[in-house]
What we know:
Strands 1-2-5-4-3-6-7 form a 7-stranded antiparallel β-sheet, with no helix packed on it. The protein has one helix spanning 2-22; strands at 34-40, 47-56, 67-74, 82-90, 93-100, 104-113, 119-129. With 132 residues, the chain is α+β, with helices and mostly antiparallel strands. Mean pLDDT is 85; it is low at 9-26. The protein contains 1 helix and 7 strands, in the order H-E-E-E-E-E-E-E. It has one domain (34-129): Macroglobulin (MG2) domain (Immunoglobulin-like).
Amino acid sequence: MLEKSLAWAALALAAVLLVMTGCRPNTSQISDAQVDVVLDPSPPEVGTSNLSLTLADASGKPLEGVNVRDEGNMNHAGMKPSFADLSEVKPGQYEGTLEFTMGGDWFLLVNARLPDGRTVEHKVDVPGVRTK
């Protein structure tokens, strides 16, 4: 009786693990994507900056239909990050605005999720944000 119960429990656990593994979205990261970021004004200054981002695969083909979010952080701890959700304006070209809240050295963390679930993560240094 105990053996039969253990066998059913093992079978149930195997089924749950199989379902969880099979339903997981593709979350692999694309490490060879081309990411180009342009800020306007350049060099950036405290306040709102226009952000233009171009995404392409390793062969240069534009990455379309991507959900792009940028996070701006200062290089020192204790500052609240700024976020920007970018919209696609043409294939592989995304635009939005980002608020630089104070002068100094910043960096952007680009997080892009493709329609198939793969991601692109990229860090961009933004040194010397000027005060007005």
